Description:
- The chain is of the alpha/beta class.
- The protein is built from 2 helices and 6 strands.
- The chain has helices at about 10-20, 115-120, and strands at about 30-40, 65, 80-85, 90-95, 105-110, 120-130.
- Strands 1-5-2-4-3-6 form a 6-stranded mixed barrel.
- The chain starts with 8 loop residues before the first helix and ends with a strand.
Amino acid sequence: MTARNSPILIPLLLALGCAFAGPAGGEVQELRVTATAYNSLPGQTEGDPSIAAWGDRLEPGMRAIAVSRDLLDLGLTRGVEVEIDGLPGRYKVLDKLHWRWEKRIDVYMGTDLHAAKQFGKRQVTIRWKPKR
Length: 132
């Protein structure tokens, strides 16, 4: 049997191809950014340090990041999950950085100031599937 004369094979291949394209056909995006870390501690933000820019409550143990506002246009919007090279698991975009930053993420470290300082500032590659 060849693909030319199989009424099942072509739709099956098309369906499998779409399944790997991601949600709503979105392709995986990749970008090299500067990464730093932050905590939900007084003095590191204005107002309640546990409330993120979109109103989400941050709690120690959450895998969350803040993104610079230029990344919003690339599909890194609230709720998008991000893989960060060198860190396990996926992190959810729940916060925004100040306008002055570009191509930057801030990894949430709960109240562990030592862990945030140890993380420091580094270049990382991030991957995500934008919402459509």
